[in-house]
Design goal:
Strand order of the largest sheet: 1-3-2-4-11-5-12
Radius of gyration: 20 Å
Shape: globular
Number of strands: 12
Helix content: 25-40%
Oligomer: single chain
Length: 368
C-alpha cells in the first residue's frame, strides 16, 4: 500500500491531454432511461419522501451487480414505494455529467472516471460509497503473431480509449517491461491503438490490431474469434484483486437522502450475495438484462468465460484505486492526484454490519 504522504500530493490534470475522462465503453445506449419493471409491493412506503431514485450503469458484464439488481428486482424491493429508475451509459464522462447535472443520483462506474470526476471538481461532486466488481480484464492476442509476453514488443495492441482504466494498465505494464511508449500518441516499442470496444473484434478480424487489453465481454469476444488470453490483469495484483467497478453518489444526494442511499447499498449487498450464491442463475439474469439494454444477449462461448473472470465484491478495494491513479502518474497522464475524501463508506459498513459481514476499508482516503 502506498505511503500516506503519497496520498496527499497536489493534483493537477496535464491539460494537454484529455486524460482519465473516459471509461471502458459499455454496450448500451449513452443515456437511455428505463423505469423499474418490478411492481411496488402493496403497503410499501416511500424512502426519504422520494418519488424515485435514478440509478446509472453500463450495459457491461463488469457492471453485473447493477444488471442483476435491475433484472431480479433487488433495487425496487429495497426502495419500497420509491420507484427505481435506470439509465444505461456507454462511457464514464456522460455518466459523470449526468451525476453532476442531477439526471442520476447514484451510479456504477469504473475507477478512472471516478478519479477524474472527483479531482476535476476539487472533491465537491461525488463520493465512492461502495464496491461492485474486481477483475474481468485481459490481454488477448493473435497466437500466430504473439506467442509469449516478450513478443508483444513491436505489435499493435488495442485499448478502449486514451487514458481509460485499461489504457493506463497497459501503459504501466509496458513500462515495467522496460519498453517506452508515448502516452498521448501511443507510438513506441508497442503501438497502443485506441479502439472502441464495440469495434475491437472487427479490428482484430481485419488484422489491424495484433491484440487488445480490454474488459469483458470484449476479451472473450476476441477469444471466440481465435485470439488467446496471454495475460489476465488479475495476476498482476496482490490477491488477484483490483477495482473495476465502484458505486458513486452525488454528494448533494448523499447529504439530503441518506436513507435512500442506504437502501440502494443494501440492494447492492443483497445482489452480490445472491450472485455469489447462485452464479449460473446470476449469469443468466445479467445476460437477460444485457439483452434488454443493448438489444442482444451474449452467446454462451462469450458469456461463460467472461462471467467466470469477474469477482463481485462489496469491498471497493480502495488501495488499488490509489495504485491505479499512481500508474497514470507514472505513464505521464496525471500529476499526483489528491484523493483524500473520495470515499464515504459509513453507510456501506452499516449495511454490512446489519448483514453480519465484515467492514471494508477506505485506505485512508475517507471523507472526514
Amino acid at each position: 500500500m502506498p505511503a500516506p504522504s503519497a496520498l496527499r500530493r497536489t493534483f493537477a490534470v496535464v491539460t494537454a491531454l484529455p486524460l482519465l475522462t473516459l471509461a471502458a465503453c459499455g454496450y448500451g445506449s449513452e443515456s437511455d432511461e428505463k423505469p423499474s419493471q418490478q411492481k411496488v409491493a402493496a403497503g410499501s412506503e416511500k424512502i426519504d419522501g422520494l418519488d424515485s431514485v435514478r440509478i446509472g450503469y453500463f450495459g457491461n458484464l463488469t457492471h453485473g451487480t447493477a444488471l442483476v439488481g435491475v433484472q431480479k428486482g433487488f433495487f425496487q424491493k429495497a426502495l419500497g414505494a420509491t420507484e427505481a429508475k435506470y439509465q444505461v451509459f456507454n462511457a464514464g464522462p456522460s455518466e459523470i455529467e449526468a451525476l453532476n447535472s442531477g439526471s442520476i443520483d447514484i451510479g456504477w462506474i469504473g475507477p478512472s472516471p471516478a478519479i477524474n470526476g472527483y479531482t476535476k471538481s476539487k472533491g465537491t461532486n461525488l463520493r465512492i460509497i461502495g464496491g461492485s466488481a474486481s477483475g474481468g480484464v485481459k490481454l488477448v492476442v493473435n497466437p500466430d503473431k504473439i506467442k509469449s509476453l516478450k513478443d508483444v514488443k513491436g505489435k499493435r495492441i488495442a485499448t478502449p480509449q486514451l487514458g481509460n482504466t485499461q489504457d493506463v494498465a497497459l501503459l504501466n505494464w509496458v513500462a515495467e517491461q522496460g519498453w517506452k511508449v508515448d502516452a498521448e500518441s501511443g507510438k513506441g516499442d508497442v503501438s497502443v491503438v485506441r479502439t472502441d470496444n464495440k469495434v475491437t473484434p472487427d479490428a482484430y478480424k481485419s488484422g489491424s490490431i495484433d491484440g487488445a487489453w480490454v474488459p469483458e465481454p470484449t476479451a472473450s469476444k476476441l477469444v471466440a474469434e481465435g485470439a488467446k488470453v496471454l495475460l489476465d490483469e488479475a495476476d498482476l495484483w496482490p490477491d488477484k484483486k483490483f477495482v473495476i467497478t465502484n458505486i458513486i453518489v452525488s454528494q448533494k444526494f448523499l447529504k439530503e437522502h441518506p436513507k435512500a442511499v442506504e437502501a440502494v447499498l443494501k440492494a447492492s449487498v443483497d445482489t452480490n450475495k445472491w450472485i455469489n450464491a447462485n452464479p449460473d442463475q446470476a449469469k443468466a439474469a445479467a445476460n437477460t438484462q444485457l439483452g434488454i439494454d443493448s438489444g442482444k444477449e451474449l452467446k454462451p462461448e462469450v458469456l461463460d468465460p467472461a462471467w467466470k473472470s469477474i469477482r463481485f465484491t462489496d469491498d471497493p478495494l480502495a488501495a488499488t484505486l490509489n495504485t491505479e491513479a499512481q500508474h497514470a502518474v507514472k505513464a505521464g497522464l496525471l500529476e499526483d492526484p489528491l484523493l483524500d475524501g473520495i470515499y464515504d463508506l459509513k453507510l456501506l459498513n452499516q449495511v454490512l454490519a446489519a448483514a453480519g459481514e465484515s467492514s471494508v476499508d477506505d485506505a485512508g482516503l475517507g471523507a472526514k
